[in-house]
Amino acid sequence: MKFAGKVAVITGSGRKQGLGEAIARRLSEEGATVVIADIGGSRDAATPDAMIGAEAEMREIAASMPGAASTFSCDVRDPDQVRALAAHAVAAHGSLDIWVNNAGIGYIMKPLGEVSPEDWRAVIDVNLTGAWFGLQAAAEVMIAQGRGGRIVNIASQAAKSGFMHAQAYTASKHGLVGLVRSASIELGAHGITVNNVCPNHVTTGLGKWQNEHFAAVQGISVEEYLRNMASRIPLGRPGLPEDTANAVAFLCSAEAAYITGESMNVSGGEEPH
What we know:
Belongs to the short-chain dehydrogenases/reductases (SDR) family. It comes from Novosphingobium jiangmenense. Keywords: Oxidoreductase. InterPro entries: NAD(P)-bd_dom_sf (IPR036291), Sc_DH/Rdtase_CS (IPR020904), SDR_fam (IPR002347). This is SDR family oxidoreductase. Strand 4, helix 4 (117-145) and strand 5 (149-154) form a beta-alpha-beta unit. The chain has a single domain, classed as NAD(P)-binding Rossmann-like Domain (Rossmann fold, 3-Layer(aba) Sandwich), CATH 3.40.50.720. It starts with 6 loop residues before the first strand and ends in a 7-residue tail after the last strand. The protein is globular, with a radius of gyration of 17 Å. Helix 1 packs across helix 8 and helix 6 packs across helix 7 (222-231). By secondary structure, the chain is an alpha/beta fold. A 7-stranded parallel sheet has the order 3-2-1-4-5-6-7, sandwiched between helices. 44% of the residues lie in helices and 14% in strands.
C-alpha cells in the first residue's frame, strides 16, 4: 500500500477501459484516494459524447475503485475549472499528492490540408495547454503543502516520433517533453517531480477508433493493421492500459524520487528515442 494516505487526481479518467481508469485503479489498489475527473458531458463540437467521460460513467468508475474515490467534472481548457479540481481534492480528501494529466484529444485525425484552425486549437488546448493548467494548479497546492508531490503527464509515442494525420496531436505531445524539462527545474527545489509517460498504441475505446481510422486510410482490414503494428514491436504486441498504469505508479512512488524531467517510453521496444 505504497500510496496509503495519498490523494491522486487523474484527468480524463471517466471512460471505462481507458488509460485514465486503469491509472486510477492501479493507484487505488496501492492505497491512494482517487479523484475521477473528466469533462462530464459534451461542451462543443470538439468534445462529442462518444469520446468523453460523462458524469454517470464517472460515478460508475469511482464506485468500482478498490478504495475511496470521488468525481469532479472539469474542462481542462478552463484554468478556473482546473484550479477548482485541485481545490476539490483538498476539500474532499485533505490533500493533493499526485496529479496525472491524462485528458487528451486523439480523435481529430485528418490529412494536413484538411485540418482547420479550430481542429488545431482543440487538440493543442486539451493536450498541451490543459496539461499546463493542471501542472500549474497542482504545483501551487503541492508547494503550499510543503511536502513535495508527483506530477505525471500521459504523453505518447507521438512525443518522440511523427505520425500521419496527427499534426496537432504530435505537436502537442512533443510539447509535453519541453514542458516537463522546464517545470522540473523549477519544482525540484520543492520536492515535486514532473515526468511524462509515453505509451505506444493502446486499444482503449479511443484506440479502437484509431485502429478503424488508420486501417481505412491504408485500405486494409483492422486485423491486418493490428498484425502489421505488432510486427514492428519487439515484444510482439500493442500496449495494454495496465502497462501505462504501472509506469505511472512507479513514477509516483518513493522508488522514483530521484527521477524528474523525463519522458519514459512504454512501447514494448517500438520507440527507442
